[in-house]
Amino acid sequence: AQSVTQPDIHITVSEGASLELRCNYSYGATPYLFWYVQSPGQGLQLLLKYFSGDTLVQGIKGFEAEFKRSQSSFNLRKPSVHWSDAAEYFCAVGHPNAGNMLTFGGGTRLMVKP
Amino acid sequence: NAGVTQTPKFQVLKTGQSMTLQCAQDMNHNSMYWYRQDPGMGLRLIYYSASEGTTDKGEVPNGYNVSRLNKREFSLRLESAAPSQTSVYFCASSSQVQETQYFGPGTRLLVL
């Protein structure tokens, strides 16, 4: 069965510091991979996605993620965090052969210290 | 261009009551989805509709029914609400070509 694991439930970083959020997946075929961000009380906004090709993908708000097939990982990175990045981040695997349904990880809540 | 809209934004029900959550998209997407979000569990798929006229169960379909009314609208019905259905419900849509899902703002449901 497909699954997505985000090992870190909470992460706190200082403003200006670098950030890496971890995501590991279990999927039988080449996955579609996504990172979404959710601000408090809001819906989910797509940060970036990987379908194929270059394994380093760039997203909005200065985020990037790298697909590593050998490690079944799709970690999200940002070189310098801003206070407005405080939110909850979700990694997801897409299933193109099953109506493109998404399987989400449990989320990582990011707090930013001034 | 409103994207994905959901109504109501917030609802309180008593156990055993019924209600329908409405979702509409104006992006001409083929596929639509209903998820529920519970703390620490991410989002879990309840039902989806790959195209107009079709619906399929997701991970947690028990206690719910759906209707794909037309290409734009996809409703979720709770026939007899239970406290375990207290959650935040999100609707999403995607174009099969783009394979990216766009989410609505959510409906917060409290079942007493």
SSE pattern of chain A, N- to C-terminal: EEEEEEEEEEEE
Q: Can you give the mean pLDDT of chain A?
A: 91
For the report, how would you describe the main beta sheet of chain A?
6 strands, mixed
Count the E strands of chain A.
Answer: 12
Distance between the amino and carboxyl termini of chain A: 41 Å
Question: What is the chains' assembly state?
Answer: heterodimer
- Using only C-alpha atoms, the radius of gyration of chain A works out to 14 Å
Percent of residues of chain B in beta strands? Answer: over 45%
Q: Any idea what the shape of chain A is?
A: globular
Rg over alpha carbons of chain B: 13 Å
What's the helix count of chain B?
0
Q: Segments of chain A where pLDDT lies below 50 for 5+ residues? A: none
Explain the overall architecture:
The complex is a heterodimer of chains A (114) and B (112). Chain A has 114 residues and is mainly beta. Helix content of chain A is 0%, strand content 54%. In chain A, the strands form three sheets. In chain A, strands 2, 5, 6, 10, 11 and 12 form a six-stranded mixed β-sheet that branches. In chain A, strand 7 (56-58) and strand 8 (64-68) form a beta hairpin. Chain A is globular and about 45 Å long. Chain B has 112 residues and is mostly beta strands. Chain B contains no helices and eleven strands. In chain B, the strands form two sheets. In chain B, strands 2, 4, 5, 6, 9, 10 and 11 form a seven-stranded mixed β-sheet that branches. Chain B is globular. Chain B starts with a strand and ends with a strand. Chain A binds chain B through residues 4, 6, 9, 32, 34, 36, 42-46, 49, 51, 90, 92, 94, 96, 99-107, and chain B through 4, 31, 33, 35, 40-45, 48-50, 56, 58-59, 90, 92, 94, 96, 99-106.
